[in-house]
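Lab channel / #folding
Pinned by the channel admin:
"Please post every new chain as: sequence first, then the structure tokens as a reply. Keep commentary short and put observations after the output so the thread stays searchable."

First post following the new format, from NK:
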Amino acid sequence: VKEVIQVGSINDHYLTVTGGGERANYRVSGGYFTQKGTIIGQNLERISSRSNLEYSVSDRLKFTSEFSFTYTNNDMNYGMGFGDANGSSPFPLSILGIAYKKMPNVGVYAQDANGNNTNEFYKISQNTSLNSDQKYLVNPVALATLAKNNLKTYRLLPTFRLQYDILDPNTQMLRYNMYVSFDINNDKSYTFLPQDVVNRPWSDTQVNHAEGFDKEQLTIQTDNNIAWQPKFSNKDHDLLLYASLQTTDGRSIDQGVLTYGLQGATDPSTSGYLVPPVANSSTWRSMGIMGRFNYS
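Reply from TO:
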């Protein structure tokens, strides 16, 4: 177990700059975050930025723009069932779970004729008479070091707002507000299981097996609303009328490539035995109308 655990750490750095004048105000911030997990092979990196600009054209007209960007690079442990020759355990075992199940007298590295450790990871022979619970249980250090499971995420969120007082707010409030928001979210995942981790022939479909998936998603949201609040000479009376039109429009596309039998390469787009690719797309739309009346 001690071969797969490590001391985790977190580093978080953030910088913010604000300023402005009589009509304009701005705020810009950026951050850099890293985390090392408590299991070898676990690393997370995140870069984020956010900006906000508010500009008042006049006492009755104001524009606001917001922008945020986040990039995440997440190296995770490879998960796979190793209960039998087909790896058909109902749930993938974690690196730590494999280490706890592994026999304690099994070495991490293969040894030469003199009993010295080599640079190659040790694999239990497929011809051994051991029970399948141990025979097909991989070297957890090799799995954490050589197998790949990576997810990269790019997310962009620009938002634009407008506020306009149609009437003089000192007399009565008749205010129009609108905003449009774009949510752009792209994911890229990649996994690879090399032959050096498992005791199977190179022609096995789960050996030198790489998968790559890309997902692109765009969601657009809008809100147009108007509010009217008159001022009565009698302060005991208060009236508010509000109406809003909200829309959502989104689309998503994802595609994946699966390859096995790769020799000297880890990219699923390179030559190998190609499994039929996967591709899906979807769209969605919604519209809502809301009205509110309040009198007191």
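NK: The chain has a mean pLDDT of 87.
TO: also worth noting, Residues 95-101 form the longest helix (7 residues).
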